[in-house]
Amino acid sequence: LRVYQGAMEAAMDIYEVTKTFPLEEKYSMVDQIRRSSRSVCANIAEAWRKRRYKAAFVAKLSDAEAEACETQVWLEFATRCSYVETEFADRLEKKYDHIIGQLVLMISEPEKWVIP
User: Fold this and answer.
1) Is 85 exposed, middle or buried (0-12, 13-18, 19+ CB in 10 A)?
2) Cβ(60)–Cβ(45) under 8 Å?
3) What is the pTM of this model?
């Protein structure tokens, strides 16, 4: 799925940039933003496997959407703390906006995705 590929690419961008964060953020911000970005991918994968059941499919996509939004919040914190350059953060923010848009579309039209 393109949405999965985009989420994986974004999560890897998060992973790389968080390597440069201060050591005191290792168990707080770094851990949280890595977890939420990876959870987007994991929830999309789970949704895909649960697509036999419309409600389960939509629920997992909704979880992925929420995790993408959480990642955006952590990215804003990282930017405000000057751990991430604004230009990089803006590019990543747009990636997550695109991912969220794709997820919302899938959630609003699950019939196109579920197995009959």
Assistant:
1) exposed
2) no
3) 0.94
Q: Which residues contact 71 (CB under 8 A, 6 or more apart)?
A: 10, 14, 33, 36, 37, 40, 96
Dihedral of CA atoms 9, 90, 16, 69 in degrees, nearest 10, equals -60
**Could you list the mean pLDDT of each consecutive 10-residue stretch along the chain, which spans 116 residues?**
97 97 93 98 98 97 98 97 97 98 98 93
Give the total residue count for the chain.
116
51, 17 Cβ separation under 8 angstroms: no
Q: Is 30 exposed, middle or buried (0-12, 13-18, 19+ CB in 10 A)?
A: buried
Residue 94, C-beta contacts closer than 8 angstroms, at least 6 positions apart: none
